[in-house]
């Protein structure tokens, strides 16, 4: 009962039909919060959502050791004595990780701290060799910050999600439970890799807001190169805190949902958790503070551990590492070198090239996509170039399972395809074939391929007239049915001509000639 | 070359007459009782070979180690001799590796060495930085010395060698005594001529206490001067590498080799701070004459005059004071009011860090693993392994540390203890004449580096407590001479279950009192040394005096230590 109600309601909210207001300024206050009350079930319940996002830092080496931080390597090959916590080893802070964390903090309008420090979060687990994780519990590297959401992100209104803090910390190794039955296998390649944990305030009200917040975060981290932000590969991981309360009453007890590995699942988990909590409360039960998991197949959250059984992490200042002291010049330098951030980039690209928001978003979803576009678009029709990239190139790459970062087609090559199609040398169809050749490793420009392989479009009117005439004469039956008023046969004739010319005939001319002849 | 020949041979260039007189009858006739400096001189003059030195040490080991329990592992003699032959080759060719070339030394078993296994039951794939530095200067490792488990203890597992090696055996109480902890093996080995020097560690007095008990020099440098890379951690913020030798000059010699910035140790003092430290004024720099100490100000902290202090130690302390006064030094009564809280603060901070540092010994990757934990009981993956693997004192400290770090008690214990530690530090800062170089750069580490040395000098002068500050603090090391084995609580001696039964719960706390004089230097990170200064008239066992100086002022420490040493 409730389930159908809530889900239909959610669909409505996502379409924006039940949103009461639009925020126009970026300031945030409780006033704005209460204005944007998004209520579930008879306008009674409001959901309060906060995120903890772990993003793997894009550094060559780990946070405290010199072993490689790249993953997809054979198991237990990127492990140093420090990562495996040999007795007598000491951590050594990686300056690159600090730089990436500072860049991320600045991009999120965080207040980078001149003095921060490291702490040990202690718990026993086989994939955590020292028995503690080095993190920043008491004095994180950045406090505050904001993520803005607006129509550029696909939200019907404007809002802002405040960031509580950003902390530098180590990743753990991986426990693999399902390869050998009855055994847990440990891979320490990831152990000690640098992460930033971004903790938001509970400023989100719907799963859509949460989903868009993560998306925006991904875009920002990718733009500044701090993290790949790839949820599927685990370079970005989300925990979410959800509580519900009756509107205009204090916040309810929250539950944390852990290990959500895609935005889709994040949103689904939030929706079912809101629904579960409302149901519990309406049945007169209390919400217990606990950690929950999300079962994708059952579309349900389930209890992992309650507060009573929660680990006491015994946070302790890390005695091996002195406080991290940054100076203002260092922060200013990083700030000055920050690339264009997603919002500015979006606005600029739309304005400068006149392409729609959707295209810009698709371009931005791939690291380096916008840069590629801007390289290819010089002296060309921006919309055409965008179409060729976002539809044809991305489509072909995706079909062949090639990442955009491994895209073999240079911007120059892609531009040459657009040129040849636009000036009528080839048809779009042939252009697509040429692009396929390029993806397969052909590094020639389109014009050269056309010349070498005789793919130039047939635009000679005399020759085309002759072919059209031949087709008409060879198909008296179709001619008759056309004359009899069956207009669709016209397209059939065009097709026949195209077939005969192996797709090289200029379709516009063929149309004109056939009209004339028929 | 037999012993007699060797002694006669030595008499040609040794000023120390006693070597001659002890010939044959005294165990100290061995070459391995020479100082490092003297031995190095003889090696360079080719009057003695490294092979002889190594053989001498091994003969002492084979003679006494079974009684003293000073070593955990003794290096294969042939391996050590091979290195000695190489060293002798170098001496013949005149290419000397360094000031320790051909000198047999030992390491406490908590230093990682590639050649011999290390405590916590593993063979390290790397050498501790200080091991590499000493090897590079030619030192030959002949073994790893015994210690309290993970450095936790004041008694150690080794027996005090004084009964064997003393030249006045008759006046010595013959009941077995402890060498002290936790670097007891190192102190016993150095005192009994099994090696020329030994590297140990000092977290709360682990170098100085056994040095005082065994009558050798025990030196703990400032925190951050010597790399901790490869030192098995007990309490990281207090652990320091320490040196045990038979004279001050040897300790200084070794200190100069191992006091180097190490990028592998994040707490290692960076080169810029080292040069700032070197640019600061100190007593040692301005005083050139050992017999004139009129510019020296010696602090005597009144809080160290505790009720537990035994009479022989009291009178020795007084003798030290009058000695320095006789050289013209000004004796100043100073106050370190936080001293009385230092001991409890230490026993909160050190176990807290230990509980964390020892979490890695979980039996998952190596080491002991309980059969009970291998059963399919997910809840207890480590409990049995850790309960069986750790000794009683280690478990006691892990539990204590775990408790003080829990959410409910962190603010009541750990935070207070840290505050006391800060108080101890600022107490010392207000007592010493020399400014603490670490505070000169506090809060503006970057901008300070840009200042020129004149400016630094100016600032440091402003901060100098010129009128009332002291250059050195002198205190006892221990409240008594070496405790009798039957009175000690060392777990290795306690295997005798009769002893264990006699202990009440307070005994463990009482045992911690042994560290009362040594702990403040660890909390403050300042250098401290135990210099043997006399023999107790009651039991005939050695007593050391402790000297402490401002952070980074090791040179003044050595300077005054030599004065004590020359007048013991």
TrEMBL record, chain A:
Major localization listed first in the record, in broad terms: mitochondrion
Identification of the protein by name: Glutamyl-tRNA(Gln) amidotransferase subunit B, mitochondrial
Similarity field: Belongs to the GatB/GatE family. GatB subfamily.
Catalytic reactions of this protein: L-glutamyl-tRNA(Gln) + L-glutamine + ATP + H2O = L-glutaminyl-tRNA(Gln) + L-glutamate + ADP + phosphate + H(+); L-aspartyl-tRNA(Asn) + L-glutamine + ATP + H2O = L-asparaginyl-tRNA(Asn) + L-glutamate + ADP + phosphate + 2 H(+)
Transmembrane intervals: none
Organism: Gigaspora rosea
Domain of life, per lineage: Eukaryota
E.C. no: 6.3.5.-
Subunit note: Subunit of the heterotrimeric GatCAB amidotransferase (AdT) complex, composed of A, B and C subunits.
Ranges for domain Asn/Gln amidotransferase: 371-518
Gene Ontology annotations for the cellular component aspect, listed alphabetically: glutamyl-tRNA(Gln) amidotransferase complex; mitochondrion
Pfam families: GatB_N, GatB_Yqey
Entry's Gene Ontology BP terms: glutaminyl-tRNAGln biosynthesis via transamidation; mitochondrial translation
Alphabetical list of InterPro entries matching this protein: Asn/Gln-tRNA_amidoTrfase_suB/E (IPR017959), Asn/Gln-tRNA_Trfase_suB/E_cat (IPR006075), Asn/Gln_amidotransferase (IPR018027), Asn/Gln_tRNA_amidoTrase-B-like (IPR003789), GatB (IPR004413), GatB_Yqey_C_2 (IPR023168), Gln-tRNA_amidoTrfase_suB_CS (IPR017958), Gln_synth/guanido_kin_cat_dom (IPR014746)
Molecular function terms from GO: asparaginyl-tRNA synthase (glutamine-hydrolyzing) activity; ATP binding; glutaminyl-tRNA synthase (glutamine-hydrolyzing) activity; transferase activity
Keyword annotations of the record: ATP-binding, Ligase, Mitochondrion, Nucleotide-binding, Protein biosynthesis, Transferase
Compartments reported by the entry: Mitochondrion
Enzyme class: ligase
UniProtKB/TrEMBL annotation, chain B:
A single GO molecular function term of this UniProt record: ATP binding
GO process terms (BP): glutaminyl-tRNAGln biosynthesis via transamidation; mitochondrial translation
Subcellular location per the Swiss-Prot or TrEMBL entry: Mitochondrion
EC category name: ligase
Active site: 108 (charge relay system), 182 (charge relay system), 206 (acyl-ester intermediate)
Main location: mitochondrion
Catalyzed reactions per annotation: L-glutamyl-tRNA(Gln) + L-glutamine + ATP + H2O = L-glutaminyl-tRNA(Gln) + L-glutamate + ADP + phosphate + H(+)
Stored Pfam families: Amidase
Quaternary structure, from the entry: Subunit of the heterotrimeric GatCAB amidotransferase (AdT) complex, composed of A, B and C subunits.
Record function comment: Allows the formation of correctly charged Gln-tRNA(Gln) through the transamidation of misacylated Glu-tRNA(Gln) in the mitochondria. The reaction takes place in the presence of glutamine and ATP through an activated gamma-phospho-Glu-tRNA(Gln).
Family classification: Belongs to the amidase family. GatA subfamily.
Protein name: Glutamyl-tRNA(Gln) amidotransferase subunit A, mitochondrial
Organism, scientific name: Gigaspora rosea
């Amino acid at each position: 009962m409730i389930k159908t109600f809530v889900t239909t309601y959610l669909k409505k909210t996502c379409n924006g039909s039940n949103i009461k207001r639009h925020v126009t300024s970026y300031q945030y206050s409780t006033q704005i919060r209460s204005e944007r009350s998004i209520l579930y079930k008879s306008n009674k319940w409001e959901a309060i959502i906060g995120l903890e996002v772990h993003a793997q830092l894009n550094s060559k080496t780990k946070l405290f050791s010199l072993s490689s931080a790249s993953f997809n390597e054979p198991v237990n090959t990127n492990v140093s004595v420090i990562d495996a916590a040999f007795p007598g080893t000491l951590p050594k802070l990686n300056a690159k990780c600090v730089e990436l964390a500072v860049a991320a903090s600045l991009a999120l309008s965080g207040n980078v701290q001149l003095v921060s420090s490291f702490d040990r979060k202690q718990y026993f687990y086989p994939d955590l060799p020292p028995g503690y994780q080095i993190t920043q519990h008491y004095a994180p590297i950045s406090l505050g910050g904001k993520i803005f959401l607006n129509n550029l992100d696909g939200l019907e209104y404007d809002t802002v999600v405040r960031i509580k803090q950003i902390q530098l910390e180590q990743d753990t190794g991986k426990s693999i439970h399902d390869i050998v039955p009855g055994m847990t296998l440990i891979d320490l390649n990831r152990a000690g890799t640098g992460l930033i944990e971004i903790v938001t305030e509970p400023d989100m009200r719907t799963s859509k807001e949460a989903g868009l917040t993560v998306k925006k975060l991904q875009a920002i981290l990718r733009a500044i190169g701090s993290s790949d932000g790839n949820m599927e590969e685990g370079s970005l991981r989300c925990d979410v805190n959800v509580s519900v309360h009756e509107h205009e009453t204090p916040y309810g007890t929250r539950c944390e949902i852990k290990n959500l590995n895609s935005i889709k699942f994040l949103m689904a988990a939030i929706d079912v958790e809101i629904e579960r909590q409302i149901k519990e409360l309406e049945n007169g039960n209390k919400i217990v503070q606990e950690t929950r998991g999300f079962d994708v197949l059952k579309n349900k959250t389930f209890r992992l551990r309650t507060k009573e059984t929660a680990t006491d992490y015994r946070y302790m200042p890390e005695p091996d590492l002195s406080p991290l002291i940054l100076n203002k010049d260092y922060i200013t330098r990083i700030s000055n070198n920050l690339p264009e951030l997603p919002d500015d980039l979006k606005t600029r690209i739309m304005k400068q090239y006149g392409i729609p928001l959707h295209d810009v978003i698709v371009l931005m979803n791939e690291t380096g996509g916008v840069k590629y576009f801007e390289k290819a678009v010089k002296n060309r029709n921006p919309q055409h170039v965008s179409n060729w990239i976002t539809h044809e190139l991305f489509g072909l790459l995706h079909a062949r399972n090639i990442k955009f970062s491994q895209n073999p087609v240079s911007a120059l090559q892609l531009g040459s395809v657009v040129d040849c199609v636009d000036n009528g040398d080839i048809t779009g169809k042939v252009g697509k074939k040429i692009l396929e050749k390029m993806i397969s490793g052909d590094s020639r420009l389109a014009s050269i391929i056309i010349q070498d392989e005789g793919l130039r479009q047939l635009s000679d009117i005399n020759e085309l007239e002759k072919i059209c005439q031949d087709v008409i004469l060879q198909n008296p039956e179709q001619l008759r049915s056309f004359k009899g008023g069956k207009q669709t046969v016209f397209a059939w004739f065009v097709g026949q001509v195209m077939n005969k010319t192996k797709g090289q005939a200029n379709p516009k001319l063929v149309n004109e000639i056939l009209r004339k002849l028929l | 070359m037999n012993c007699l020949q060797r002694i006669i041979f030595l008499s040609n260039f040794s000023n120390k007459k006693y070597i001659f007189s002890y010939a044959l009858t005294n165990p100290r006739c061995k070459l391995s009782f020479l100082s490092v400096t003297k031995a190095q001189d003889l090696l360079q003059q080719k009057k003695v070979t490294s092979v002889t030195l190594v053989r001498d040490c091994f003969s002492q080991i084979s003679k006494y180690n079974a009684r003293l329990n000073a070593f955990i592992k003794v290096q294969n003699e042939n391996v050590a001799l091979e290195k000695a032959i190489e060293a002798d080759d170098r001496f013949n060719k005149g290419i000397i590796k360094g000031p320790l070339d051909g000198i047999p030394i030992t390491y406490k078993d908590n230093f990682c060495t590639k050649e011999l296994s290390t405590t916590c039951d593993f063979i390290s794939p790397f050498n501790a930085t200080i091991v590499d530095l000493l090897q590079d200067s030619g030192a030959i490792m002949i073994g790893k010395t015994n210690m309290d488990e993970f450095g936790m203890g004041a008694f150690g597992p080794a027996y005090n060698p004084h009964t064997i090696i003393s030249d006045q055996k008759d006046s010595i109480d013959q009941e077995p005594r402890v060498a002290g902890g936790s670097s007891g093996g190192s102190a016993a080995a150095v005192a009994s001529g099994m090696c020329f020097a030994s590297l140990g560690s000092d977290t709360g007095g682990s170098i100085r206490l056994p040095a005082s008990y065994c009558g050798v020099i025990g030196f703990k440098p400032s925190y951050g001067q010597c790399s901790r890379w490869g030192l098995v951690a007990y309490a990281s913020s207090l652990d320091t590498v320490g040196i045990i030798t038979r004279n001050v000059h040897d300790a200084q010699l070794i200190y100069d080799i191992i006091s180097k910035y190490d990028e592998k140790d994040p707490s290692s003092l960076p080169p810029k701070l080292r040069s700032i430290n070197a640019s600061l004024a100190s007593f040692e720099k301005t005083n050139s004459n050992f017999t004139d100490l009129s510019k020296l100000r010696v602090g005597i902290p009144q809080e160290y005059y505790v009720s537990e202090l035994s009479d022989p130690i009291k009178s020795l302390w007084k003798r030290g004071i009058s000695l320095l006064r006789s050289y013209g030094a000004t004796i100043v009564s100073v106050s370190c009011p936080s001293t009385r809280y230092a001991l409890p603060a230490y026993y909160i901070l050190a176990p807290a860090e230990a509980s964390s540092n020892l979490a890695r010994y979980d039996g998952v990757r190596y080491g002991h693993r309980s059969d009970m934990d291998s059963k399919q009981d997910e809840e207890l993956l480590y409990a049995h392994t850790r309960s069986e693997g750790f000794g009683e004192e280690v478990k006691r400290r892990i539990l204590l540390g775990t408790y003080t770090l829990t959410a409910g008690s962190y603010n009541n214990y750990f935070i207070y203890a840290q505050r006391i530690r800060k108080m101890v530090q600022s107490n010392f800062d207000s007592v010493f004449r020399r400014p603490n170089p670490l505070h000169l750069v506090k809060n503006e580490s970057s901008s300070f580096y840009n200042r020129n040395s004149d400016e630094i000098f100016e600032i440091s002068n402003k901060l100098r407590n010129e009128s009332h500050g002291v250059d050195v603090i002198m205190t006892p090391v221990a409240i008594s001479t070496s405790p009798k084995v039957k009175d000690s609580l060392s777990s290795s001696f306690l295997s005798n279950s009769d002893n264990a039964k006699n202990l009440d719960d307070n005994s463990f706390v009482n045992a911690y009192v042994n560290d009362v004089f040594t702990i403040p230097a660890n909390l403050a990170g300042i250098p401290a040394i135990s210099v043997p200064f006399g023999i107790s008239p009651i039991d005939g066992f050695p007593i050391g005096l402790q000297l402490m100086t401002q952070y980074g002022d090791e040179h003044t420490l050595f300077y005054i230590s030599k004065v004590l040493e020359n007048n013991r």
